[in-house]
Hints:
Blueprint: E1 7-9, E2 14-18, E3 30-34, E4 44-50, E5 61-64, E6 69-72, E7 82-88, E8 101-102, E9 106-112, E10 121-125, E11 131-136, E12 147-154, E13 163-170, E14 180-184, E15 190-195, H1 199-204, E16 208-213, E17 222-227, E18 234-241, E19 244-252, H2 256-260, E20 265-270, E21 279-284, E22 298-303, H3 319-322, E23 331-336, H4 340-345, E24 350-354, E25 363-367, E26 375-382, E27 385-393, H5 397-402, E28 407-411, E29 420-424, E30 432-436, E31 449-450, E32 463-469, E33 484-486
Antiparallel strand pairs: 1-33, 2-3, 3-6, 4-5, 4-7, 7-8, 9-10, 9-32, 10-11, 12-13, 13-14, 14-15, 16-17, 17-18, 18-19, 20-21, 21-22, 22-23, 24-25, 25-26, 26-27, 28-29, 29-30, 30-31
Amino acid sequence: MNNRANYLQLTCFLTTALASTIAASQSNSITLEWDPVDDARVTHYELYYGTQTGDYESPPIELDKNTTTYIFSDLDPFQVYYFSIKATDGQNEASDFSNEITSGEFRYVLGAKAGDGEAGWVEIDDKHKELERTLSVTSQRPLQIEGDSRVAVGDIDGDGRDEVVIGYAARDGRTPLEGSFQVLDDDFSVLAWGTVSWPEYNSTNGETYPAIGDIDGDGRDEIVIGLGTGGLGMMEVFDYKNGALTSIGWTTVDWPEYFAAGGKTFPALGDIDGDGKDDLVVGFSEIEGNPDMMPGGVFVVQKGLSLDESALTAPAPAQGVAQNRLLQASNMVSGDLTWSSYASRIGETRPTLGDIDGDGLDEIIIGLAPAGDGLVEIFDYQSGTLVSIGAVGVAMPDYNLVNGETRPAVGDVDLDGRGEILVGLGTGSHGIIGMLDDAKQGFVSMDSFQGNSYSVGYEDAGFWPVLKRERTETPAKTTTTQPKLRQ
């Protein structure tokens, strides 16, 4: 006889929408909505809130079982709040907490460059740059990762809030990383683990460089994984549907000599022409020890990448990995850094995209490798050509002298409709993230900040930053299936 308790699966989804039409950063109210729990035992809901994630005021607010919305008023606009809800029978039984919602419009997510012999981690900060939590990238999977945790954000399930994808770049000579990447839900719970569909690459290198964007314009972002040395310029495209990651196919850049010498692909996604579909921008790594095969400051844009499975073909250089699974782009455009001496000596290009001038089109921002003088270069797509707007940089002369690499990201931190540029830095930066204002403000320096998980004396500290959206202007329901109510 089975004596285990019988559990009934329930759903209690919590969603948010601003109750005011004024800027979110100035609003003093927020509306919470949730799906009703269809169970006769439920008599009411308990709504929890607090100013620290997972730490709520007591007692909770009790609401009738027929209530599915609640407005919090007179909130401090400079304080970040956190909300969750339970369904209860009014006696001794209650569901688990629902997913947690924050009043903050965004969070900072920082992928850490781990020290020698250390595991990587990801830092989560609220919109005021206060530490919320750190996540160890080894706690979810028995994989020792020493090196960078590369992060990308995007809405892969269409709920209006960004998920997080973590890729891994190992230190030289370390154990192969198995082609793994991790997907976190919008509440930072583990949503899925992904693996590159190329066993030979995974067993010899396995580095993964993630990007997220809506390639086909269906409202759900796809994931593109760039590969490290030995990847032959291949990038795999994944979709998330019905609770699982699925490989759609592969894309590549035709540069066999460079990739045979060990070149890596750094993908990024954004809509540079306003057609509602994100374009794939690919940057290229420096090849250490091979001065005759440098990327030369080049990056390329694949426009009109089709995810139509009927158009898949097989590439000649990688028949084994992408047999009949090569995605086709309608057009290819290349760009070149204007700093000729850097391009000829090093030439590494690290792309990101975002709308920095508020025109509805994304610009391309290129970060540089060490010896990059703390600069990023900005490009605009005009009449079929990539045009340099100019180079801007962080005002850290000591760091720029000894390192100078830049790891850019774009996000609207002041909620004015124009993206600011976040500049992650490398060794010798003491965990500083630089910030540059948008194009209208002339890319002037804003207040930089130091990652909260930086340790004094840890000279190798450095972060790969992104800005994670927490909600859109209209309610968006989570896909988390919880909680449970005991019978």
